[in-house]
UniProtKB/TrEMBL annotation:
Subunit composition and interactions: Monomer.
NCBIfam families: miaB-methiolase, MiaB/RimO family radical SAM methylthiotransferase
Similarity annotation: Belongs to the methylthiotransferase family. MiaB subfamily.
Protein known as: tRNA-2-methylthio-N(6)-dimethylallyladenosine synthase
Reaction catalysis annotation: N(6)-dimethylallyladenosine(37) in tRNA + (sulfur carrier)-SH + AH2 + 2 S-adenosyl-L-methionine = 2-methylsulfanyl-N(6)-dimethylallyladenosine(37) in tRNA + (sulfur carrier)-H + 5'-deoxyadenosine + L-methionine + A + S-adenosyl-L-homocysteine + 2 H(+)
Binding annotation for [4Fe-4S] cluster 2: 168, 172, 175
Enzyme Commission code: 2.8.4.3
Protein source organism: Candidatus Jettenia caeni
One Pfam family recorded for the sequence: UPF0004
Amino acid sequence: MVNSPDFIYKDQQYKTVFFETFGCQMNKLDAELSLGLLQEEGYRIVDNVNEADVILFNTCSVRQHAEDKVYSHLGSLKTLKKRHPDVIVGVLGCMAQKDGEAIFKRMPHVDLVCGTRMFSRLPELILKIRSHGSHVLAIDEDHIVNVKRAVTYRPNIHQAFVTVMRGCDNFCSYCIVPYVRGREVSRTITDIKEEVQALIANGCKEITLLGQNINSYGKGLQGAITLGDLLSELNDLGGLDRIKFVTSHPADMSRDIIRTISRLEKVCEHLHMPAQSGSDQILKRMRRGYTSTYYRELIQFAKELIPHLTVASDFIVGFPGETEKDFQETVKLMEDMRFQNCFIFKYSPRTGTKAAELEDDVPDEIKRARNIRLLELQKCISLEENKKIIGKNVQVLVEGASKSDPNRLSGRTKQNHIVVFNSPRNLVGRLVNVMIYEVTDLTLYGELKNSP
């Protein structure tokens, strides 16, 4: 391992940490919070596992593929662990919460299994392993996550995720989230505002509010508090340009919240609202709590009030019992709704969910074919919709250099379009106007105009 005299811990031991995150935005924020805690204890973050004294994987359990990937990464560390037995290997997050002790049995070289509610104790848990040299399992289901945020640690100083609630009470039949993230718990508006004000003081221009079921924000708080109330309070904060929020459950997205969004100039004109299927039969088996007609009417209502609104969705293909007729109803919903983009997944049973008790009766080759069909359809829709923007000016919050071309800048519109453009100077964190002259299904390309 690489040693350096520049990083000495409080206990006079040099420590470095490698951290890799899988899954949703909530996991990414949990990673930021975890690394902030470790940095406050003197840890230095490294990008190479061979330079790390602590190797941590923040995991996802929503799909089997995500778990398989983590186990593959863990397996590849066996040789490193033999060469350097003092290296601590840890599994955090949803997979840790779900599998618990089973991870030690499958991967004996893992030292730490830390669930979704225990990462705030990460430095303490690592120190315990250092002191006693034994496996540590931390998956307390009743522990309340309360982390004082180190706002200075985040990938982009101008953007930040902010947790407003955790957990989910919906128990969709296919979903493991309520079992690994717990029941819904909301933070107070005062607490959230204090965090956002600290972020603004640190240079933040855009916040994304996070919750597994964010439309239920306010549950458990005193008074009839809603997501609309929170958005209204944050909209009045000076120094903040944009507010986003994810993820919206259609059954809990009220029309009052949509009306509030339409009145707030800082709230982005974009909704991520997973439909999951266009078939009422499948939606019922999924326990989604709405019909395809309800979903269509809700989107239509939102677009009438917010003319430039874009909507993203999620779909699961091959759910138990899905017939060709059911699938064609999903195709029809995608064609009619004209989503900006969609995340499309093949169904995989998750142990512990109600759907896992159903027969997984759709052959894998049919799942693959349906997955490809929806991906191709969405690509065509996205390209057709993006072509309508050619020749128009769009406002972009500049995020940084383009991933595909570091000589150009990249950012997003209020409708969540990715925009790439040339600029003679660094405009990161600024709102600028860009004229669009070319598009793909994923990206808009433009020419910089005068900033607003």
